[in-house]
């Protein structure tokens, strides 16, 4: 098993934990981002993003999206009433982000953790871009920093 395979397995396991924490059995791109942040990323750290700040940005995106639909939560976000059972499966946004990230590497064996993060950041619409925008993150600058990581690793 290659280094990236070990890393991917680790990130998917951590993302599954993040999904369970959210009360879902579907791993989505934002769960992958949280897992990468928990593991550490030079570009995320340089942008001032760690697991806690990303979780806060995602929670803000959730409440903002609900408010846009006319649903207003009073106070903290509700916790799931029952923990999900079973093994979380990859959702569409996670699968697409992983495919996009792997495609940015010339060959699978050239893939690095930065490529996986790049796949998430290249998503043009959805929860992750909205959360980063609401948090005031310059997504273009962050994406460019991650791209530099992918070329610096070779």
What would the keywords be for this entry?
single chain, 154 residues, mainly alpha, Double Clp-N motif, two-stranded parallel sheet, Clp_N_dom_sf, Clp R domain-containing protein
Task: Explain what this protein looks like in three dimensions.
There is one protein chain. The protein has 154 residues and is an all-alpha fold. It has one domain: Orthogonal Bundle (Double Clp-N motif), CATH 1.10.1780.10. Helices cover 62% and strands 3% of the residues. It is built from 8 helices and 2 strands; from the N terminus they run αβαααβαααα. The chain has helices spanning 3-21, 29-39, 42-46, 51-68, 92-103, 113-121, 127-134, 139-152, and strands spanning 26-27, 89-90. A two-stranded parallel ribbon has the order 1-2. The model has no long low-confidence stretch (mean pLDDT 89).
Q: What share of the residues does DSSP label as strand, in percent?
A: under 5%
Largest sheet: 2 strands, parallel
Strand order, biggest sheet?
1-2
**Low-confidence spans:** none
Secondary-structure element order, N to C? HEHHHEHHHH
CATH superfamily: Clp, N-terminal domain
- CA radius of gyration is 15 Å
Distance between the termini: 19 Å
Oligomer: single chain
Protein name: Clp R domain-containing protein
Short description:
It comes from Paractinoplanes toevensis. InterPro entries: Clp_N_dom_sf (IPR036628). The protein is mainly α and 154 residues long.
